[in-house]
Amino acid sequence: MKNIIRCALFAGALFASEAKAQRSLNVNSGHSHNDYHQNIPLLTAYYAGIGSIEADVFLKDGELYVAHDPSEIKTGVTLKKMYLEPLAGFYRQNGNHAYSDSTKRLQLVVDIKKDYVKVLARLIKDLEVYPEVFNSSKNSRAIRIVISGDVPAPADFKNYPDYISFDGRPYTTYTEDQLKRLAMISDDIKNYTPWNGKGNPTTPDLAKLTAVIEKAHQQHKPFRFWATQDSPNTWIVLERLGADWINTDQPDKLKEFYLHRDKLSYTNPVAYPVYTPEYKVDGLQKPVKNVILLIGDGMGLAQIHAGSIANHGQLNMGKIHNIGFSQTAAADAGNTDSAAGGSAMAIGEKTNNRYIGVGPDQKKRTNLVDTLANYGIKSGIISVGDITDATPAVFYAHQTDRSMSSEIAADLLESKVEILVGSNQKSFLKNKDAELMNKLGSKGFKLSTSAADFLKESKGRQLVLLPDSATRPVKDGRGQLLKESLLHSLNMLSANKPGFFVMAEGAQIDYGGHSNDLPYVVTELHDFDKTVEAALRFADQNGETLVVITADHETGGLTLLDASAEKGMISGAFSTNDHTNIMVPVFAYGPGSGEFRGTYPNNELFHKIIKVMDLKNKRKK
Fold this sequence. Notes:
The protein is α/β, with parallel strands linked by helices. It has 21 helices and 24 strands.
């Protein structure tokens, strides 16, 4: 009983903190179970870089046939033709290594279904043709031969050549010499747990699983479970338990899982503090003077939850009480891009993908910035990406294709925006219209080409064109550009008595989703959330400001697999490198925030903002 309790405590500790001596696995830790059932036996697993390949064999007419059952035996499908000859060819081709990468290992597990005495005799004869390829006792670089299934008694191991290794069992007692002949120890996971691969095994089962692995490790042998579920969550749990081989029928998927693992997990050791709003005017039905619209481009619920877990369970936006959902479909497709998604919010009408500030009929619509300007309300548009890109562009430009960067930049001449901040200097400074900057100057715009210069300005129209390096990813050192730009814009626009509207975009949450890079996504979301904090603090101090936080769409089809808020650790997988049709949340804080509850099309955000600002009762300028 004491041992069971001790194991349970160990298992719990293992799942609560990093295992001190745990080896990080990779695709070469994969065991291709029943490999001969692959559409392309051997080659699928080999080109994936799998380190252990299993073939079941039967002896018939003096040949070793690869099959799971005698009824499956087919002419020509022999161990020699399917595995030994090709592996010998690879070995020689790679300069006497199993793989071209000499650090990768390979073992061929021959699972004998019956009559091991005759099967081993035939196998040994077949292997004698390739002494340098499969004799691991004389050549450490050789491909190891491991016998499983119907194996000799441990006492008889010594009767076979020393290059033959065996697959042991945890319930068998081995002498020191017999242990030397074991390549690994394996067992059926069902002997320890009915776990189906979802979530984690129960605490008592974790204790049993951990104990059997630990026993093998105490004997200095790697361990493998067979009959495991074949999914990323299972692979994660098995590795955490300490298993050395990952059983799989999907070598390619296991390869993808490990190949991109650095982009599918993220740990934030130290959480940043979050702000708890005052809620003094939150939800009150009173006219709104100012609106701060924060758009996390590509930010869906999974991205938000990943950011929360990575910040040890808290986000600034998580403190907001009034929450709704925005349906993001474009007018011409179920999925939206940022152009159609942003335009819906900016013009109050769904439109086609790629369209910037125009309706499905390609005709210009008056956007939110220009609508509010008619009532003396000044606006600022901020992005930590290309300022001519879709999301910021829809608030000041009108074009039929988001790629028309030069034309989008020139549309600023007709816009009533007060402050524009983002990168892509080229589209303005080297515009098709060589006089564009002079014309913008005549419209009152003051050009700044650095954030530092912008922060020195205190009044007037501002065009802040940053070098592309200034909007590099936050993980590469961008700093708090979004938060600082928002705060300075708020400071400048607050002097406008009729009020202001600011749209600030966390552009690169989307970039991380497109590249299926979870650390990129989470670090950008954290940067965005720190900007949310600045907006909430301003709203509390001002008392007449509504903060709305949403996204134009979700990007990447992110699924979360493993998480620990205690560690700030999150891992996941992506289903696409494109946008999805998943609804995105809408968080609202301040007076009028209750208007944003419920589920509605994304173009309703335009009308809800107009409603809470009570434009019907305001006089046009």
